[in-house]
Amino acid sequence: xxxxxxxxxxxxQGALLYERRLAHGTAGNLSVRxxxxxxxxxxxxxxxxxLEPERISKVSPEGAHIAGDPPSKEAFFHLAxxxxxxxxxxxxxxxxxxxxxxxxxCHADPSNVLPPLTAYHVMKVGRLPLVSYFRPGDRRLAAxxxxxxxxHHAMLLANHGPIIAGASLEAAxxxxxxxxxxxKLFFLIGDRPASPLSCEAVEELAAAFPS
Length: 211
Fold this sequence. Notes:
Layout: H1 3-19, E1 29-33, E2 39-41, E3 57-59, E4 65-67, H2 75-84, E5 90-93, H3 97-104, H4 119-124, E6 130-131, H5 140-149, E7 154-157, E8 161-166, H6 169-189, H7 199-208
Parallel strand pairs: 6-7
Antiparallel strand pairs: 1-2, 1-5, 2-3, 3-4, 5-8, 7-8
Helix pairs in contact: 2-5, 3-6
Family: Belongs to the aldolase class II family. AraD/FucA subfamily.
EC number: 4.1.1.104
Enzyme class: lyase
């Protein structure tokens, strides 16, 4: 896709996420990686529901602002994910309600904070690590996110929200939707006895649908 088409895709997917109430206010950001390593990223203090293609920020691989409005203050951790995952072409970061709620809980195993309730969660999201809390804009978050991204295309920032990397923006949005639906299921089930997929079932899915 051309840069113009990618800008339009960001506007389209941002509006979809906003309409589905996965994005609110000016929270969250989207990005795509261009062939030269630069990224297009949503501007700071922008609503994903009301983006304009020509105002989307363009940032160099080193983090320099090239074009468009000033970039999201979280563009630095998008760059960290791309550096750690050469195959990633797009990133979705949201503050979606149920996923953020998961990020606020205490977890016995921070390496995987949602049980494998459905095959589709295992296939699309996989293991979901919790990255330690850093205040918004803290550059130390880049190192923590980059480390997690080496082995995971989805992660949760503690007390903050999810980061999803995908082979395309549409793919990343679809993974994000699956994560949010699984988080909803987790809270709907609550303390009731549940039957997550067995280790054998998870291994079978991993073999049949490698990420």
